[in-house]
Amino acid sequence: MILMKDIIREGHPTLRMRSEEVAFPLSDEDRKLAEDLLMYVKNSQDEEMIEKYDLRPGVGIAAPQVNQPKRIFALHFDESSDENLSLIAINPKIVSHSVERSYLTSGEGCLSVDRAVPGYVPRYARITVKAFDIEGKEYKMRLKGLPAIAFQHELDHLNGIMFFDHINPKNPFAEIPNATPIDRSSGD
Ligand code: 4LI
Ligand code: NI
After folding, report:
1. Per-residue confidence at 185, pLDDT binned at 50, 70, 90?
2. Which residues on neighbouring strands pair with residue 20, listed in sequence order?
3. Quick check: CB of 119 below 6 Å from ligand 1?
4. Which residues fall within 8 angstroms of residue 143, CB to CB, at 6 or more apart?
5. 131 CA distance to ligand 1 middle (Å)
């Protein structure tokens, strides 16, 4: 089980690497890693598990964040929200995206960043993605809203990019052209 002590933080060189493609069929090790990542995000949204293991809530986590530079991440959105999505993405890619952008008005957080970095993080509002699941089956889906933002945030991790790289350094809250703000007081 992944705990906060297993998550590397800002400054660790692995977070700046380009992660390696994963080969199929998955090795037992890679399968376990993928399952552990999904289990982390699920647990991190469960009150009792948060208390018991001192987890920080997240909707996404990527393999390089546990110091394994492989192209795998997991996303989980609970049914309490309008989105209801749980996925493992292996060798993921964005095949097309909207011109329109979006951003979280409260900014983005990251399990590997122990400080609040204020500012808007411009993302594509809608993306069509392709990835492989744990069985090596390719899937394609369209995402919008927070799931689209989280997918882009996690895909960035596989390329050594941190969310704050996208924040306008002169004015973190500068208006983003052609963008729809997404208001989310907090998770769920
Ligand atoms: C408790 C239980 C306010 C501040 C609002 C919490 C269940 C920030 C938002 C959650 C912010 C859940 C989240 C992300 C932000 C802020 C991620 C709380 C977990 C809200 C997810 C990857 C960016 C994703 C919306 C600095 C660890 N997640 N909030 N950003 N939630 N959560 N990101 N932004 N301001 N990060 O962090 O999983 S994309 Cl679900
Ligand atoms: Ni992150």
Report:
1. low
2. 70
3. no
4. 126, 127, 128, 129, 151
5. 23
Q: State the pTM of this model.
A: 0.97
In the chain, what's the furthest Cα-to-Cα distance? 46
Domain assignment present for residue 187? The answer is no
For ligand 1, is residue 153 a contact (CB within 6 Å)?
A: yes
Annotated ligand binding at 12? The verdict is no
184 touches ligand 1 (CB under 6 Å) = yes
Residue 47 — φ and ψ, nearest 5°? -40, -50
Question: Which CATH number fits the domain that encloses residue 72?
Answer: 3.90.45.10
User: 63 by DSSP, 3-state: which?
Assistant: helix
User: Tokens at residue 13, please?
Assistant: 């060189």
- Residue 153 marked ligand-binding: yes
User: Which residues have C-beta under 5 Å from ligand 2, the single-atom ion?
Assistant: 110
d(CA 98, CA 95): 11
| Span of 14-23, 29-38, 82-91 with lowest mean pLDDT | 82-91
Within a domain: residue 76?
A: yes
Of the residues 35, 108, 135, 154, only one is catalytic, namely 154
